[in-house]
């Protein structure tokens, strides 16, 4: 009989060493130390086991956190010396002289030997004292991912689906991911598995040896593993544990009766039996076949298969009767325990065998939980007709709870309602995208922080982090349906809420438990808490509002209602205006917003003689920088991982890096419909390097863009990134349509653009050869002069991978040039930086413009560093920059750590930006949960970045002046929270 391949993950012991994901095969269904092996009644043909070689790069993930510590100026090295009582080996002199870790920059590390770790054995207890299922609200407030579900036992944890934001949610609510044994995917796509790469890397960094986990899913899981190997390096053998039909890249024809007939048993041990029932869209059926033998054939493609998971607990033994045991000659002792565990024993005083049925009451069937993911109406037709569910209908097997991951567009139909009613007496939990699930932010800490920042400075922080009821109804059609139409589902149906539990054991607690559901937090409550904690913040709010008053005459700058709507951008901001009015007094929020100048004029800024000419008469519809994530390594309570949205307003937008959770952050900033518009309007996406915290949100963005533009005429979006990223995207496109074209960052450097311009001229000249002999002569002269041996251009064309040797690169460069023009940009130049192989920063330059008097105004220039040590190339690129966005992972006293991991300190970042007008610092270590340590005396043109911070070019003059007030907002944040503190985790 074929065996199920087990996805077994062995994780690294040290961040500086390359370790190995090794996923070994297990005998069928025996995943634990003492498995209860069970054989299927007949062989299951569509079982697949695939072996793939891919590499793993330990990176930027959190280790076991130390106790609470008070911030000081000690380096991490000094802290370790105190804790361990021994000196750490000094860094090599060569590295100190170079100022960066050369081995790391070259993609090498000190310990290249793979580790051989064992999967931890859990000592299972068949009589569990506690078992429940719990909704983990990933994506519920922003509707960007599928929710996750936790199946909890005393010594085992199972998670179903791992969408983007799962780590951040678990950190927020102190759910320990280190206890997870298995992750099951109901579908293999960005919606259900977007958080998996980051989660695996986080588990890799826990403890000294890392944590191991099993990942199970449909056969498409192998495509995801193939995609992840591009950024999980150093050779490792992987045996994925997948089930279902084995598909080829172009789809496969599989007999329905053979493939979808029986449940697939995945786990069957002392505490739980977990089975999978495959669900496919009925539209895949082929009814036009001429051959009767292939009449019932389904043609499937990756991502079409969905899974229903059935979790069955063992039956509960009847109540033990001690009087019956005594009458049968048994004395108190271990034999009574054996009888309760279902074992027969010999009587102590009689020559008889005592069976459990002799002393126990009747057994009670074990609880059964179903997790149903029916993503489309096409899948619904197959769901209704599934024969494999017949034994769970109408009380044949009593189902205790059904958790519905299906969207409202499916669950609100009469057909789905009829199907639900077949589970007699079951508790239904509707965990799909519904309105109620959006009312409470799942990231309360982040929402509270956003509300405080918005109260202090609504100009830079327009998002309050809370949803408006009218805004919810104006969003997703599914939400409209669930909020307007009466729910036809059974009376036993409840809407899922974050951390809602359904207890299965002990029986005395059986049923729903809402005690863990977070309490409602409103923006008004968050501000009231702030005023009690820092009463002087009221004066700071007034001072911040005056910063904008100084720029121009407020009476002349009050906008019309139409202009104000465009400027504010946030559709739900008016809801809490009364709260701001109450706390601001005469300086109400509306007044403060209206006093934002329409443009910046040099006559009004005598205090800032260094104002760049590009800001002259700058309108608010030119460009805005939106920081969607400002943390490094992994998502935390207060900072998401790196992502920057450049809002070009009517000309669209673009993304610089795209870490996990980027889509959710866009929705928190612009609302559901606003984020959809932003995704549809993306001109291109630029990725700095291959580390997971900079690109694992990319697939979700690209897949959503395809869905939103489906049925419309549109061009593939260009993704500019390191060449390793192309392998990930090419492999991932087998799962979902991404509709993108890739361009290596190396083809967008200054030298490569120079070669492109020369080639463009040559091509244009050659096209005129038959029209004009003079042009032909010019073309020939160019070829003989530009590409003579030893010339700069000859060396350029001889480089490996140049556009002349790479099919289609020139055409994509041409298209990018056109897209830049449409976005009002004059240039995009990638700059090699010092971090890991193929790491880049980027320079964006806007095209020049004419003012009202016909004068030519130079375009703005934005520089983004990516992750890097200070380097001359980036410093040169910053000359004349309007704004530099630079990573500042470490505080100034941690230079050694910055060198070891090829990152920058705060002061180093500021020094790189000497030639820039303004500097925004970002990518802070998660050891600084809310605000990093910095020396304010050096911040005269610099500001600290926060998630959701939105900096309009017109507001750059006042940017550094806000920093002291932001520091006041966090004056009590001198203790690093245990859940957020990370040590030795950045790469």
UniProtKB/TrEMBL annotation:
Residue spans of biased composition, Basic and acidic residues class: 77-95, 103-115
Gene3D superfamilies: Ribonuclease Z/Hydroxyacylglutathione hydrolase-like (3.60.15.10)
One Pfam entry name: Lactamase_B_4
Complexes and interactors: Homodimer.
InterPro entries in UniProt: RibonucZ/Hydroxyglut_hydro, RNZ2-like, tRNase_Z_dom
One of the GO BP terms on file: mitochondrial tRNA 3'-end processing
Domain tRNase Z endonuclease: 141-195
GO cellular component, one term: mitochondrion
Record flagged with keyword tRNA processing: yes
Keywords assigned: Calcium, Endonuclease, Hydrolase, Magnesium, Manganese, Metal-binding, Mitochondrion, Nuclease, Transit peptide, tRNA processing, Zinc
Coiled-coil residue spans: none
Source organism, top-level taxon: Eukaryota
Reaction catalysed by this enzyme: Endonucleolytic cleavage of RNA, removing extra 3' nucleotides from tRNA precursor, generating 3' termini of tRNAs. A 3'-hydroxy group is left at the tRNA terminus and a 5'-phosphoryl group is left at the trailer molecule
EC code: 3.1.26.11
Cofactor dependency: Mg(2+); Zn(2+); Mn(2+)
Record-level Gene Ontology MF annotations: 3'-tRNA processing endoribonuclease activity; metal ion binding
Region annotation (Disordered) ranges: 77-115
Family the entry assigns: Belongs to the RNase Z family.
Protein name (Swiss-Prot/TrEMBL): ribonuclease Z
Location(s) in or outside the cell: Mitochondrion
Record has Ribosomal protein as a keyword: no
Native species: Papaver somniferum
């Amino acid at each position: 009989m074929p065996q199920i391949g087990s996805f077994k993950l062995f994780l690294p012991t040290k961040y500086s060493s390359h370790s190995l994901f090794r996923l070994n095969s297990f005998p069928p269904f025996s995943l634990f130390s003492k498995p209860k092996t069970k054989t299927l009644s007949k062989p299951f043909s569509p079982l697949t086991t695939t072996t793939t070689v891919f590499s793993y790069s330990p990176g930027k993930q959190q280790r076991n956190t130390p106790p609470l510590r008070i911030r000081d100026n000690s380096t991490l090295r000094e802290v370790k010396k105190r804790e361990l009582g021994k000196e750490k080996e000094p860094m090599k002199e060569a590295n100190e002289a170079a100022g960066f870790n050369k081995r790391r920059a070259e993609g090498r590390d000190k310990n290249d030997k793979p580790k051989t770790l064992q999967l931890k054995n859990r000592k299972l207890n068949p009589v569990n004292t506690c078992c429940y299922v719990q909704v983990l609200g990933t994506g519920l407030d922003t509707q960007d991912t599928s929710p996750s579900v936790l199946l909890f036992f005393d010594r085992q944890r199972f998670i179903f689906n791992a969408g983007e934001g799962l780590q951040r949610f678990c950190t927020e609510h102190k759910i320990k991911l280190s206890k997870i044994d298995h992750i099951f995917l109901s579908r293999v796509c960005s919606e259900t598995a977007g958080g998996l790469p980051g989660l695996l890397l986080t588990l890799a960094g826990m403890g000294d040896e890392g944590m191991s986990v099993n990942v199970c899913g449909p056969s498409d899981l192998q495509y995801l593993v193939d995609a992840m190997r591009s950024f999980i390096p150093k050779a490792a053998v992987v045996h994925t544990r997948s089930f279902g039909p084995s598909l080829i890249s172009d789809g496969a024809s599989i007999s329905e009766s053979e493939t979808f007939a029986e449940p697939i048993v995945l786990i069957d041990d002392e505490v739980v039996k977990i089975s999978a029932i495959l669900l496919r869209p009925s539209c895949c059926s082929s009814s036009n076949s001429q051959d009767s033998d292939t009449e019932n054939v389904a043609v499937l493609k990756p991502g079409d298969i969905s899974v229903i998971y059935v979790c069955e607990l063992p039956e509960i033994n009847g109540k033990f009767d001690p009087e019956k045991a005594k009458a049968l000659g048994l004395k108190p002792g271990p034999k009574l325990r054996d009888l309760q565990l279902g074992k027969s024993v010999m009587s102590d005083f009689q020559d008889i065998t005592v069976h459990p049925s002799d002393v126990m009451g009747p057994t009670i069937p074990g609880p059964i939980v179903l997790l149903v993911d029916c993503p489309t109406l096409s899948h619904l037709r197959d769901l209704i007709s599934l024969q494999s569910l017949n034994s769970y209908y109408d009380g044949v097997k009593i189902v205790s709870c059904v958790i519905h991951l299906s969207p409202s567009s499916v669950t609100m139909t009469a057909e789905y309602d009829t199907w639900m009613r077949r589970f007699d007496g079951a508790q239904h939990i509707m965990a799909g995208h519904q309105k109620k699930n959006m009312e409470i932010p799942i990231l309360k800490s982040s929402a509270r922080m956003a509300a405080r920042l918005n109260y202090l400075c609504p100009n830079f922080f327009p998002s309050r982090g809370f949803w408006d009821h009218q805004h919810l109804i104006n969003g997703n059609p599914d939400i409209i349906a669930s909020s307007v139409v009466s729910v036809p589902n059974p009376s036993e149906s409840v809407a899922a809420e974050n951390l809602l539990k359904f207890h299965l054991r002990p029986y005395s607690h059986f049923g729903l438990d809402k005690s863990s559901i977070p309490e409602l937090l409103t923006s008004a409550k968050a501000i009231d808490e702030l005023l009690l904690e820092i009463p002087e913040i009221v004066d700071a709010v007034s001072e911040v509002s005056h910063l904008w008053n100084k720029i121009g005459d407020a009476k002349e700058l009050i906008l019309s209602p139409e202009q104000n709507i465009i400027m504010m951008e946030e559709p739900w901001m008016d809801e809490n205006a009364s709260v701001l009015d109450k706390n601001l007094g005469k300086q109400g929020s509306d007044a403060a917003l209206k006093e934002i100048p329409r443009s910046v004029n040099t006559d009004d800024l005598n205090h800032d003689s260094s104002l760049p000419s590009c800001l002259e008469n700058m309108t608010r519809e030119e460009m805005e920088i939106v920081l969607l994530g400002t943390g490094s390594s992994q998502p935390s309570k207060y900072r998401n991982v790196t992502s920057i949205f450049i809002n070009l307003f009517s000309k669209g937008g673009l993304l610089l890096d795209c870490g996990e959770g980027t889509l959710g952050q866009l929705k928190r900033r612009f609302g559901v419909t606003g984020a959809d518009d932003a995704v549809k309007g993306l001109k291109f996406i630029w990725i700095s390097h291959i580390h997971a915290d900079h690109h694992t949100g990319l697939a979700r963005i690209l897949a959503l863009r395809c869905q939103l533009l489906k049925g419309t005429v549109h061009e593939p979006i260009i993704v500019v990134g390191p060449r390793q990223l192309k392998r990930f995207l090419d492999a991932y496109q087998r799962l979902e349509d991404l509709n993108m074209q890739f361009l290596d960052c190396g083809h967008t450097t200054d030298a490569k653009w120079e070669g492109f311009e020369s080639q463009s001229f040559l091509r244009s000249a050659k096209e005129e050869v038959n029209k004009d002999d003079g042009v032909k002569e010019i073309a020939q002269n160019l070829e003989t002069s530009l590409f003579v041996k030893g010339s700069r251009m000859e060396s350029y064309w001889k480089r490996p991978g140049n556009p002349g040797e790479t099919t289609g690169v020139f055409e994509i460069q041409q298209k990018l040039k056109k897209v830049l023009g449409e976005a009002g940009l004059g240039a995009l130049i990638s700059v090699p930086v010092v971090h890991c192989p193929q790491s880049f920063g980027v320079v964006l330059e806007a095209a020049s413009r004419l003012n009202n008097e016909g004068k030519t105004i130079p375009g703005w220039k934005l520089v983004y560093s990516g992750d890097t040590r200070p380097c001359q190339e980036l410093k040169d690129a910053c000359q004349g920059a309007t704004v530099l966005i630079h990573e500042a992972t470490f505080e100034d006293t941690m230079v050694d750590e910055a060198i070891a991991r090829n990152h920058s300190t705060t002061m180093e970042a500021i020094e790189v930006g000497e030639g820039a007008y303004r500097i925004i610092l970002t990518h802070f270590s998660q050891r600084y949960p809310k605000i990093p340590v910095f020396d304010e005396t050096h911040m005269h043109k610099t500001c600290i970045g926060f998630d959701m911070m939105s900096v309009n070019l017109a507001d750059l003059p006042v940017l550094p002046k806000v920093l002291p007030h932001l520091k006041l907002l966090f004056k009590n944040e001198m203790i690093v929270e245990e859940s957020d503190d990370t040590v030795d985790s950045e790469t």
